[in-house]
Amino acid sequence: MRFNLVLDVPDVPGQLLEVLEPMGRLGANIVAVIHQRDVKTERGTVPVHITIEGDKEILDKVMDALESKDINILEVDGVIRKEQITTVLVGDIVEEDLQDTVSKLNKLNTVKVADLDLKMSDEPRNSATMMVIEADFGQRKEVLKNIKKLGAQKGFLVINEV
Amino acid sequence: MKIVILGFGAVGQGIARVISMKKDYLKNRYELNPQIVAVCDRSGAAICETGLDEELLLQTKNDTGKIALYPDYGFPDRDSLQVLDEIEYDCLVEVTPTDIDDGEPARTHIMKAMEDGKDVVTSNKGPLALSFQDLADCAIKNNVEFKFEASVGGAMPILNLAHETLAGCSIKSVYGILNGTTNYILSRMANEGSSYEQTLKEAQEMGIAETDPYQDVEGIDAACKIVILANSVLNLPVTLKDVKVEGISKITSESISLAKKEGLLIKLIGEASSDDLEVSPRLVRQGSPFAVEGTLNVATLKTDLADDITVVGKGAGSVETASAILSDIVSIWKMRS
Ligand SMILES: NC(=O)c1ccc[n+]([C@@H]2O[C@H](COP(=O)([O-])OP(=O)(O)OC[C@H]3O[C@@H](n4cnc5c(N)ncnc54)[C@H](OP(=O)(O)O)[C@@H]3O)[C@@H](O)[C@H]2O)c1
Fold first, then answer.
1. What is the topology classification, in CATH, of domain B2-153+318-336?
2. Which residue among A119, B46, B80, B274 is least enclosed by CB atoms within 10 Å?
């Protein structure tokens, strides 16, 4: 079988080899590599398109090896991979317009608020909301930064994952 | 090895206690014979060039509160700098209170000892958080050893672990629960559903939180430790003002119970990496190494070769903290002999 992967690779010497190493070592057949150095992201990474061929077992091992090397896999066979980010906000959630908070988060690049829980307090500024947010792989840092920024604007304490 | 102890509170007394307890062990195992030749507190000093008696030091402090009342060898009104000038010694143990405005009096004590060519061991975060690089440079210039394992996480080994045990690894980042008081408060709030104010009050009554809890609950104490880790382990020349700090005083029982529904806990986490220096409340998974309760501390080193290394231990306590100071003393002794 065959996998078309899009990987997110830092644009520094040696990084592409680092990505190809487990493929060779585990015996996957590398069919194509497209390294687009001109489409650098804000994070200083470049998307690398790689097509590999082999038994399913081998390809699964390659995916595990890439993940254990902290290499971001953005797409597999054209499907964008998502990760979940949980955050808790403390403050006057309702007064500060919950709907507006959610829609501002949804406007961020690739972000969708997937789940939301609210706990009201007798003291309105002690209220809290917990959100589960979905974003494309590799976006975690950026998304967390934006949640902090939005929290600061609305006077919320933002509690992100470690 | 002749030792001067400046400060004779919880930690200073802990050192006298561990030296007394471990005499034979240190002699048999390392041929180390530590002699406490002077001790200072605010009352003055006890000085004896051939070695003070550890048990008598503890008894004097316990009974009178004043080390200057040590029988025959007590000197009221003798201050620390005079003592450092007058006496022959090898190693200064600086354990006066932490000051985060100017790092004094510890900063002056440490600098003077190093300029006089003496090795220094400290648990004092103040001078390290404010002027780490000056102190480290001073140690190099004067060719002396300067060690401070106890300043981060008390008994929990982290600095020497990073430098010695993991000597072949590059450390990319460090994060951890570095303040026992706040961890105690957050654990109690999670277990009992109690409010922040009520839990703080109980912690104060139990002597776990200080009467003025500001530095603990607002994250300053953890931030000092993050500065020390950033300098010592990551080689980042930063000081306290470079750390973004948010404490736990805004944490509500509502937010804790929401997090619990998803199997998460709220903990005060310090983090140091080349692009982030931060102390803030964060979410951790129940059942993960960071889900520690009570006053425990925990820290993870992210390394290039060994992946993640996590340690847990007691972040405070008299004998516990003294254990880290004793490790530093032994390692200086091994280097010198
Ligand atoms: N306690 C812990 O578990 C722990 C853990 C890690 C790090 N630390 C750090 O270790 C240090 C000592 O902590 P501690 O708990 O032992 O503090 P402490 O109980 O308050 O004791 C401080 C001692 O310093 C003495 N002192 C104050 N000013 C002095 C001066 N100018 N010259 C000489 N002595 C002076 C005090 O004298 P009097 O007795 O006369 O008042 C007292 O004996 C602090 O920097 C702290 O942050 C403590």
1. Rossmann fold (3.40.50)
2. B274
